[in-house]
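This entry is listed as follows:

___
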Amino acid sequence: MNLNERRKDVAKDICRSYGVTLSIEVLRAFADILVPMKVLRGHRFVNEGDVCNYMFYVEKGMLMQHYTKNGVKVTEDIGHENDMVVCVESFFLRQPSKIVVSTIEPSIVFGIPYDELYALARHSFELCRLIFQFYQHALIAAQQKADVFRFETAKERYVRTMHEKPEIIRRAPLHNVASLLQMTPETLSRVRALVTAEGIR
């Protein structure tokens, strides 16, 4: 498969994920702006203080968003195949990012560049709808995450992630999973042992 075909397939996958249908012409234009990136583990797409110029669609691999607080690295989010990873505030408001985006695994990512996306959207209501869906998904995800940490126990958070994002449990380093779920690695180990003993799958 050549690059243009891969871009078109990725563009279709993105639109499908966000429930948006694009006309043939707009889909082609959207596909043309996608930037393929093949990187090793530990690659940084965004550093603290950078403006995030891309949304990152993960075709293969695993990306992590994290920041440092009081000298401790805190995992904000983890994305893998078919996920979109973006520093929302930095990307949409064009502000320096407080969040770092890096790879946990060797990854193949397609970047959606801000300038090209909005240049297309100025002439396409269809692309405006896709951007609206990006906003909506990000807002809902933030609300759901806040509710999880407000109302769920450590065990409930772990079981939820097991069911909704099993690849994170299976593939991400233990300390990153613990940080993502806002617990210590020791607490995570105890929760995992409890869930295993109870036979929860």
In short: The longest helix spans residues 125-151. The chain has two domains: 3-142, 152-201. The first strand starts at residue 35 and ends at 39.
